[in-house]
């Protein structure tokens, strides 16, 4: 059963509908519709706006209290009349747009040699050819491995109580839920990634991702299909698990989570460490130098977003961590 909850009211009161078809016909019926009269003239009982923008205008007429974003949102789900398809297309489009969009500045920075003094491994700048080959591989992976995962998200989350309703949840609700998803995903990523460095798994799965010892933005999702599926599971299942436990998840929160997680992964692979990088202000944030060292040395720094798992389980690889380990060893030798 489709489950778009659309808000529409001729008199300004809100009405919840349980599926897209009901929503779309109610929106048209309640709206002072030119479409309604034209449909009547055609002697038709189906009062459905023909285009997305017709749908948007109909919703706007009877829902002045909604923000533009909320109207665009409601029009999309009402017009599509298939929530799984609406979410699938939207998620995939967001993923492609923000992945490649976020990579573009890094491609320019590498190509034109901007910020050279902030490049972590300054002698290893990726060529345009390397970046193009990487982009083709990533694109293939998006269509073959990630697309089915994105498609499955909506029915699974819907089963757990996912909401597509308007108005949107508050900024605070979205912020704290996304913070929880970051913590959940980071934990999943740490243990899976650490396991991937076990000999047989490294050779058969994770070696692909380590092709670039000096990473760059596009290389964030350059990995074997099995790795993409396993690590992607952490990104998709964190909100699903949250939704199953609390019954409180809006799909807009999921979209923003996907975008922020993409930004985190791409920036961690950028190869640049700036004085204004986030981990200088949030010391537990992993950032680019954390993951760059992992690609350079092939050991330690397994977490994605935060530094605490590597710190707690003594897998941190940094000058400070090495120093701490040396001091600990000297101390232990003295006591023997
Ligand atoms: Zn690795
Ligand atoms: Zn990596």
TrEMBL record:
UniProt GO BP: lipid biosynthetic process
Pfam families xref list: FA_hydroxylase
InterPro entries: Fatty_acid_hydroxylase (IPR006694), Sterol_Desaturase_Related (IPR050307)
A GO CC annotation given for this chain: membrane
Principal place of residence: membrane
Keyword annotations of the record: Membrane, Transmembrane, Transmembrane helix
Top-level taxon: Eukaryota
Name the UniProt record assigns to this protein: Fatty acid hydroxylase
Annotated source species: Penicillium patulum
């Amino acid at each position: 059963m489709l489950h778009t909850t659309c808000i529409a009211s001729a008199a300004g009161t809100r009405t919840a509908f349980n599926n897209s078809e009901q929503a779309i016909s109610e929106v048209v019926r309640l709206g002072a519709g030119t479409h309604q009269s034209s449909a009547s003239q055609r002697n038709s009982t189906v009062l459905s706006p023909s285009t997305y923008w017709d749908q948007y205008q109909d919703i706007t007429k009877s829902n002045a209290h909604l923000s533009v974003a909320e109207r665009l949102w409601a029009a999309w789900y009402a017009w599509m009349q298939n929530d799984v398809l609406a979410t699938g297309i939207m998620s995939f489009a967001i993923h492609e747009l923000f992945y490649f969009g976020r990579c573009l500045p890094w491609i320019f920075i590498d190509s034109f040699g901007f910020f050279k003094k902030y490049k972590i491994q300054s002698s290893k700048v990726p060529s345009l050819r390397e970046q193009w080959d990487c982009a083709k591989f990533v694109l293939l992976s998006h269509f073959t491995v990630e697309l089915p995962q994105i498609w499955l998200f909506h029915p699974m989350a819907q089963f757990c109580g996912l909401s597509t309703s308007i108005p949107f949840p508050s900024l605070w609700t979205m912020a704290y839920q996304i913070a929880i998803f970051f913590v959940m995903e980071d934990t999943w990523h740490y243990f899976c990634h650490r396991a991937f460095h076990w000999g047989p798994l490294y050779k058969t799965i994770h070696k692909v991702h380590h092709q670039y010892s000096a990473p760059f933005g596009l290389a964030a999702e350059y990995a074997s299909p099995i790795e993409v599926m396993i690590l992607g599971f952490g990104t998709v299942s964190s909100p699903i698990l949250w939704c199953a436990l609390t019954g409180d998840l809006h799909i807009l929160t999921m979209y923003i989570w996907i975008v922020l997680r993409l930004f985190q992964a791409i920036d961690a692979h950028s190869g640049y460490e700036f004085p204004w990088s986030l981990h200088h202000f949030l010391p537990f944030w992993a950032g680019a130098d954390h993951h760059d060292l992992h690609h350079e040395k092939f050991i330690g720094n397994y977490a994605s977003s935060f530094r605490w798992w590597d710190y707690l389980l003594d897998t941190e690889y940094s000058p400070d961590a090495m120093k701490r380990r040396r001091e600990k060893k000297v101390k232990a030798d003295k006591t023997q």
